[in-house]
Amino acid sequence: MTRARRRHRVAVITGTRAEYGALQSIIEAIDAEPRLDLRIVACGMHLLPRFGSTINDIRRDGWPIAARVRMQRGDDSPGDQAAGLARGVDGIARFLLRDKTDIVVVLGDRIEAMAGALAGATTGALIAHIHGGDVAPGDFDDSLRHAITRLAHIHFAATPIAARRLHHMGEAAERIHVVGAPGLDHLIQLRGAWRSKPELPAEVSDLGPYALIVQHAHGRSAAVERRVARMICDEVARAGLARVIIYPNTDRGGSGVIAAIEAHAKRRPRDTRVFKSLPRDAFLRALFGARALVGNSSSGIIEAPAARTPSVNVGDRQKGRDVGGKSVINATESAASVRAALRKAVAMRPRAASQIYGNGRAGERIARKLATIAITPELLRKHFNI
Description:
It is a single chain. The chain contains 14 helices and 13 strands. Strand 5 (126-130), helix 5 (141-151) and strand 6 (154-157) form a beta-alpha-beta unit. Helix 1 (17-32) crosses helix 13 (362-372) and helix 8 (222-238) packs parallel to helix 9. The protein is 42% helix and 16% strand. The protein folds into two domains: 8-182 and 360-380, Glycogen Phosphorylase B (Rossmann fold), CATH 3.40.50.2000; 187-347, Glycogen Phosphorylase B (Rossmann fold), CATH 3.40.50.2000. The mean pLDDT is 93. Strands 3-2-1-4-5-6-7 form a seven-stranded parallel beta sheet, sandwiched between helices. Strands 10-9-8-11-12-13 form a six-stranded parallel beta sheet, sandwiched between helices. The protein is of the alpha/beta class and 386 residues long.
């Protein structure tokens, strides 16, 4: 008689509101898959009150949290990211060993994902990486993303182009699976309901025409980041649009972005709404209703085109990322360039996104693969395939 195989214990690492939003469909699919046993490890920004204590979003969604790992403090000190990474590796590894975790799932390029990948590698777990092969310089994002690629045993690429980059990096073809961008899974579902019954989040329903601003720092001084963020807010106001502004991530220089946001809201309180974070569905409804998304977030490259919302991509933070549609308009960090791009975006008619990021079924594809994968010594042994 053949003994039934034990379910794979899968730890999903989440450290930010945005990456948790992209992971939601994966978490749901893993939870629904009888051959998988879900654990959620919350770390990083989720545990910082200054950025909205978004661990509460996970709780509100009804997910049990298996471990909480404190990492960065969220300030601009040079050592905060390094010390946070070290704490993350230590805390996540302790959990993985205690739990006897089989698979660690990480997404993207932040230090929370790097901590999860390093913890998995040093404790013998299989590492599954989502959005590997993307290109976006950010602060030191690409360096982290590609380092995670070399640690990961299986890759869930968002686009065929990203999959080709992984192959060129020496990853074996059988380890690479093109699944689409999981951040579009809920968006595409919600978009249908929005078309029949448009409904804005209550906090912004009284604003009139508005732009959604999501601007992150990327490694420069707080003074430089403050100047750029102030210019973006002022140009959106100059265009006659109200501002719905989301706090940045905990990147170096982020205090400057926050200072600019708070100063703008103080000057223009009547037509400005500032959020440390928004739950995923509320963010998507705000995106659907916006005249444009403005800033340097990946949501302007991936989610906004799928939402049929034009976006103004400011600066080089997303340079090289595969663009989700022709509704993405690039601008430099000058007022004149942002002004011209915003004018073009507001005049643009809604248009369908390209299919480069898939059809909204990434989560189920990932869970299916994790459920059927055989974790063998050969799979856990990495080598260059060139």
